[in-house]
Amino acid sequence: MTITVAIVGSGPAGFYTADALVDGGCDVQVDIIERLPTPYGLIRGGVAPDHQTTKKVARKYEQTARFDAVRYFGNVEVNKDVSLVELREMYDAVVLAVGAPGDRKLTIPGADKEGVHGSAAFVGWYNGHPDFSDLAPDLNTATAVVIGNGNVALDCARVLVRSREGMAHADIAAHAMELIAASPLADVYMTGRRGPLEAKFTNVELRELGELEQAVPLARAEQLPDSVPDDMDPRDRRLTERNLASLREYAGNDPAAKPKRIHFEFFAQPVEILGDDRVEAVKFERTNVVDGRARGTGELFEIPCGLVIAAIGYRSDPVEGAPFDDKAGIIPNDDGRVDDGLYAVGWIKRGPTGVISSNRPDGVTVAEYIRADFKEIAHGPAHGRPGRAALAPLLKERGVRVVTFEDWKKIEAAEIARAEGSVRPREKFVTVPEMLKVLDA
Ligand SMILES: Cc1cc2nc3c(=O)[nH]c(=O)nc-3n(C[C@H](O)[C@H](O)[C@H](O)COP(=O)(O)OP(=O)(O)OC[C@H]3O[C@@H](n4cnc5c(N)ncnc54)[C@H](O)[C@@H]3O)c2cc1C
């Protein structure tokens, strides 16, 4: 008989799980339930708009969505339109793949001032995520500070200084491109508590800053160590050496070479956001790093600025009906198993780290567990739960406007049509009503 599986969330973790289930050689029916009309999670709403090659992974997910066994239920939010408890009654297995949509909060005094944004909100805004499309950050400032030393921080800094021409092939939301193009922003400070040895950038992203059309990256030679410690893991060592080489190159750059600058400021721990209602400066304490940890030196300094992006990590929200480890910010699980018939994959399972492909093994493992846990259904006469035969009528009865995968393709076609006449891949709709209107037309 058929194992019925509901996957909550259509990001990489959800799609890898669906793919592994369909690929597993037993009879399954897989429903992917997504709160937005649009699929693919952070591939659409997180990955930078000028990184279209990375976003191509969605083509693989599209193949998965088109399997006969798979159905996409877009615009359906779990615990709003249907509860997790109900889903568990309707399906043999429920897989939570809801990601980590929120920001880890900056907790220094003044962090709630106007002009201070978390990276989840800022990235969501420039990527046209409906939750953040009305953020409208005030970019009428000459200087911005980005707090954080990872790839998301680099994305934010880079997008802030890119020109319209540089973004010609990107699917940045039109509202964001307008504000960025009109902004007088000339200096972006990339700040990190620790040093270049501890920074989490990948080298491809770091090097990209050296090729920007109107901004030059600058590092301070005195902040760069001469070499990498011998005891570093060989893989980390190679990456760190490459990063140091790039930063050394940036230390030799001419600040006047281009109209905008990205400054690397290491050993800088933010201690307070200064200003009245709006941010006017960030106060930092200089640090040194001992055994990999930043220690304050007592020396304070300020960077005047009108915009702060805190890119210090993401955080999951609890899912009603499932346990939650508030400290770790994940659903507690044993290698993906949460409870009988309940599983977790991706960032909600592991926390918000790793690249797109890091989510694949989660899906493969959980698919194996589901096949093992329901083998009487897969290989015997036992009947399982009804799955979509129960969900579809329930959603209809509740008046939920389900967006199917074919509907999504219509929305996508309309986005592509809106970009016609340019080299942009699409002109995104940034609100749910706009997306649904396409389907009414
Ligand atoms: C800004 C940023 C840039 C990144 N860039 C790269 C990159 O360039 N390369 C790379 O390899 N990795 C990148 N990553 C990492 C990569 O995006 C993640 O590893 C991956 O998206 C995590 O997958 P996920 O499926 O766990 O979560 P997500 O991708 O967040 O997907 C979760 C999905 O669940 C949905 N959902 C949430 N709650 C509900 C609910 N109640 N009901 C229904 N649906 C729900 C969400 O709408 C979303 O679609 C980036 C991450 C970020 C934050």
List keywords for this structure.
single chain, 441 residues, alpha/beta, Rossmann fold, FAD/NAD(P)-binding domain, 2 domains, 6-stranded mixed beta sheet, 6-stranded parallel beta sheet, 17 strands, 32% helix, globular, binds flavin-adenine dinucleotide
What do you see in this structure?
- With 441 residues, this protein is an alpha/beta fold.
- The chain folds into 2 domains: 3-101 and 316-403, NAD(P)-binding Rossmann-like Domain (Rossmann fold, 3-Layer(aba) Sandwich), CATH 3.40.50.720; 104-314, FAD/NAD(P)-binding domain.
- The protein has helices spanning 12-22, 42-45, 52-55, 57-65, 84-90, 119-126, 151-161, 174-182, 203-208, 234-251, 347-350, 360-373, 375-379, 388-397, 405-418, 432-440; strands at residues 3-8, 28-33, 70-73, 93-96, 102-103, 116-118, 143-147, 187-191, 215-218, 260-265, 268-274, 281-290, 293-304, 307-310, 314-315, 337-339, 342-344.
- It has a 6-stranded mixed sheet with strand order 3-2-1-4-17-16, sandwiched between helices. Strands 6-14-7-8-10-9 form a 6-stranded parallel sheet. A 3-stranded antiparallel sheet has the order 11-12-13, with no helix packed on it.
- A hairpin with a 2-residue loop joins β16 and β17.
- α1 (12-22) packs across α4 and α1 (12-22) packs across α12.
- The longest helix is centred in the middle third of the chain and has 18 residues, at 234-251.
- It starts with a strand and ends with a helix.
- The structure holds flavin-adenine dinucleotide (FAD).
- Flavin-adenine dinucleotide binds at residues 8-14, 33-36, 41-42, 46-47, 51, 54, 77-79, 97-99, 123, 152, 155, 314, 346-347, 354-356, 358-359.
